[in-house]
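Regression test case RT-17, inverse folding.

Input:
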């Protein structure tokens, strides 16, 4: 889900005294020659420039480039994302994007991120908050950790495993969790203690056992035996946002979902009969295809075809157009949400 501002920069005139209220505004970024430009990133740039790509206007995200190059021009930024309106907003109507009235929102989450990082949609997670009460959940491809942090703040989940692969990415998730752990929960006026409930963990989609560590020396992001058992016996929901952009990684994503969803929950668990469920959301990104000689959403279409070929999984498209807004952003008409579960035998 795209944030209403697609790229950010620090206001260079911000003084040290204003550090706590960092000024963030739209900018243009000139990518270095070492940074690969993916078709998805090119598509985003084309849509913003009416079809013509200006190299000065390209903005790359960690989603689209190698994590080692994820800082774009070497800088990390801190932005404030407003979540959970304190007054009801009409369905389908976002907060005025020019409004700076932070009192209209329960949470202002501070997130350290690279330029071009999209705002992950949390509306669909909050819409099923009743089902999440006391649950152990897992996010795939967490990136900055924003969705996992939002889950920890806005729902009554017992634990969130905030997963990605690279150590640098997981370290940034850890930093973002620490930045927000003192936020007060409105229902109890108690600190959220996010660092105890949202745990960054390494998950490698290319491994036969995605939770297995191959490092000689385990680090703090590796799964403990107790955590693996906790997921096996209590893990109910999986979330993934904006992780569909490369066909080979889509193959790995679906194979990982098969492994995580196929294992039944133990008898006595409230979701034993229904089984585990994953929610995958993405934004269609359009590119010109030489195969089709047309502009198509190739990554999205491949995901749909690939999951239809799965012998294990079923995917149902969910209409999310009328979900109430839980964050301040402009919802794209190309947002897609899929509910994924194991086929009934």
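Golden output:
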């Amino acid at each position: 889900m795209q944030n209403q501002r697609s790229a950010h920069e620090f206001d260079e005139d911000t003084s040290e005294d204003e550090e706590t209220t960092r000024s963030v505004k739209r900018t243009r970024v000139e990518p270095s020659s070492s940074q690969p430009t993916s078709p998805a990133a090119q598509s985003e740039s084309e849509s913003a420039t009416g079809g013509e790509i200006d190299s000065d206007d390209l903005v790359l995200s960690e989603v689209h480039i190698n994590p080692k190059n994820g800082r774009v021009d070497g800088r990390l930024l801190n932005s404030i994302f407003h979540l959970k309106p304190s007054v009801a907003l009409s369905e389908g109507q976002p907060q005025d994007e020019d409004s700076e009235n932070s009192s209209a929102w329960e949470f202002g989450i501070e997130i350290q991120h690279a330029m071009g990082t999209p705002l992950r949609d949390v509306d669909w997670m909050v819409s099923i908050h009743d089902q999440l009460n006391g649950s152990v959940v897992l996010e795939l491809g967490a990136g900055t950790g924003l969705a996992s942090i939002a889950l920890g703040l806005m729902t009554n989940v017992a634990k969130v495993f905030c997963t990605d692969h690279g150590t640098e990415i997981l370290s940034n998730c850890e930093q973002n969790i620490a930045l927000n752990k003192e936020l007060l929960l409105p229902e109890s006026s108690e600190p959220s203690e996010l660092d105890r409930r949202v745990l960054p963990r390494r998950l490698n989609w290319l491994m036969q056992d995605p939770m297995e560590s191959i490092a000689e020396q385990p680090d703090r992001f590796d799964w403990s035996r107790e955590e693996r058992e906790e997921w096996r016996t209590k893990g109910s929901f999986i979330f993934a946002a904006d992780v569909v952009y490369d066909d080979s990684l889509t193959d790995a994503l679906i194979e990982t979902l098969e492994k995580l969803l196929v294992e039944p929950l133990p008898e006595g668990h409230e979701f034993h009969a229904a089984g585990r469920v994953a929610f995958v959301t993405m934004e269609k990104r359009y590119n010109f295809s030489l195969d089709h000689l047309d502009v198509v959403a190739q990554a999205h279409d491949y995901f749909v075809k690939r999951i239809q070929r799965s012998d294990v999984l079923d995917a149902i498209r969910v209409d999310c157009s009328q979900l109430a807004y839980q964050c301040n952003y402009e919802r794209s008409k190309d947002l897609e949400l899929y509910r994924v579960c194991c086929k009934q035998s």
